[in-house]
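Re: that chain you flagged

S.,

Sorry for the slow reply, it's been a week of failed gels. I finally had a moment to sit down with the sequence you sent. For the record, here it is as I used it:
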Amino acid sequence: MLGALDTPFREQRGAQRAHHGEVRGDGQRVPEQVLERRLHPHVGRHAALEEHRQALVQPSWKYVLNYETKWMDRDTIVAATYEAGLRLNRLKARYGLVSERQAAAVEARIKKAVGLSRVIDEIMTEPDEAQRTILLQAIKSEVDQANLSTVCDKRELELPVGLLKMNFFRVGRMVVGEWLKQLAQSVR
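Prediction finished late last night. Pasting the structure tokens below so you have them in one place:
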């Protein structure tokens, strides 16, 4: 088990040695990019302010995303985010945290966003910038609609304020449950 935990440390230590003059088995120096990737698994994509500004006007959050890791590129991060959103939404529905209707609407929006992401990726391969702009403009309203409350309903993010919005039954059940746990622990 220690070997598995030690592996990243050994890779980092080895990369540092290579950085200070050590060479690979084939006699070649380890390229600087490889060393940087090993030493710093998080890689930023936009360095200059103008690159950040240009990213903000891209058609999808995937193209705005400013980082990758050595384990996940942007495509993988996007896919994992949508998959996590789907699974979390299903769990919330199963445990009654959102209504079935609300969960179905969120799932439909996530699936729509995944499909639009594929369409946008296809459009972004268009070499002619004018044609690419026309194609993106044609789906803009659809993308804007899909971007509203994609992985959760916006209302889930709102914090209820005031006593009247509190679910007293649920709060009471939680308080009694915690009280019983503490009581059971103190008896042991």
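What I noticed first: Residues 1-22 have pLDDT under 50 and may be disordered.

Talk soon,
D.
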